[in-house]
Amino acid sequence: MDYYDAVAELIALNGGKLVGRTRLQKSVYLLQASGINLGFDFDYHHYGPFSEELATAALDAEALGMVDVEWKMSYGNEYAIFKSCVSVSDFPNFDKAGEVLKVLGKYEATVLELAATADFLRKNGYGSDAWEETKRRKASKITPQRLEQSKALLHELQALH
Predict the structure, then answer these.
(1) Euclidean distance between CA atoms 48 and 116, whole angstroms
(2) Rounded to whole angstroms, what are the CA distances from 159 to 3, 117, 129?
(3) Contact 9, 86 (CB under 8 A)
(4) What is the per-residue pLDDT for 90?
(5) What are the start-end ranges of the H helices in 17-51?
(6) What total number of domains does the chain contain?
(7) What is the pLDDT of residue 138?
(8) Strand, helix or coil for residue 38
(9) Partner of 121 for a Cys bridge, out of 50, 61, 91, 126, CB 3.0 to 4.6 A?
(10) Considering the entire predicted model, what is its pTM?
């Protein structure tokens, strides 16, 4: 499966729509962390795990007419609404991916960002200190409620294994 196919089918699997580049990045990261390997490599950036390959694949999917992207403004920030123009035909672990996306859909994008960041840091040298490091790096975004929700999200995803 090509990367742009994976993006278009992921959006289709998510009910045909996915709101925000952060949600796209963190959804793919968390799908892969849940054992659904789409082949994207992630590095750490300001908003947590980020894949340049994924960002390019989303642009390619749009250029190929597989995804429509509508840009909106909210509180002075621009965000993307991705809409798939394809159906799901070859998505890896289709059923499990659908379950993961259903779990992710219950949480706001910032919660996904915090959970993905903690998971990435845990796997990349911070071990049991990952949540403390996430709090330090994401001080402006972490609230007690978001922290609790981020931990609950990771727990729900682990329960799907």
Answers:
(1) 7
(2) 27, 19, 22
(3) yes
(4) 84
(5) 21-33
(6) 1
(7) 96
(8) coil
(9) 126
(10) 0.95
